[in-house]
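Practice problem 4.
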């Protein structure tokens, strides 16, 4: 770890993410005291979810944040899932979740409190008290580890009044992320009241 080495691959923006200057981006992971933060090229996001799900103990939960207003999100949960159910959610909706620009999503462990949160502009946070559980697997994704957040340029860093960036809803196979809560309602997905 340490130092910045640029990947040979270009950073790929998700379909629902637009920001000028993407040529300045690479996939980075920063080790923090309470886990990891980072920015991942589109093709690496599902791999990060897989690393997380393979590493945490069951049961796990899935969460989805959908915008209602400019700064207000509705939060939906699917609690107490087996790893198999979590992988089924990703199999069914993973491409849509990854490619969409307006939603935020993630998975967490009911047992340890560890949580992977995929945020706006392809940034992520992985909260954990045990970073060693994930480090080797995250290294295999191909993202560059850096010692200091200041060494990395994340897509959100490019946002300014002159470069506002755009997050848009993506439709795949006739569905958007707004269809997910209803599709998973029978499996127990619910809207948080808080």
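Answer key:
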């Amino acid at each position: 770890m340490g130092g910045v080495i640029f990947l040979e691959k270009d950073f790929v923006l998700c379909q629902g993410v637009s920001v000028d200057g993407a040529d300045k981006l690479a996939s980075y992971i920063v080790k923090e005291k309470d886990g990891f933060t980072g920015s991942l090229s589109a093709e690496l996001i599902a791999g990060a979810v897989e690393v997380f799900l393979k590493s945490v103990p069951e049961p796990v939960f899935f969460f989805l944040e959908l915008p209602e207003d400019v700064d207000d999100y509705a939060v939906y949960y699917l609690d107490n899932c087996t790893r198999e159910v979590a992988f089924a959610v990703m199999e069914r909706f993973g491409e849509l979740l990854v490619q969409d620009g307006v939603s935020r999503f993630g998975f967490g462990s009911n047992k340890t409190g560890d949580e992977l949160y995929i945020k706006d502009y392809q940034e992520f946070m992985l909260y954990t008290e045990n970073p060693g559980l994930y480090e080797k697997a995250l290294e295999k994704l191909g993202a560059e580890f850096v010692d200091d957040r200041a060494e990395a340029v994340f897509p959100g860093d490019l946002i300014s009044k002159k470069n506002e960036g755009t997050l848009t809803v993506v439709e795949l196979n006739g569905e958007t992320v707004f269809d997910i809560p209803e599709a998973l309602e029978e499996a127990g997905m619910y809207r948080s009241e808080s």
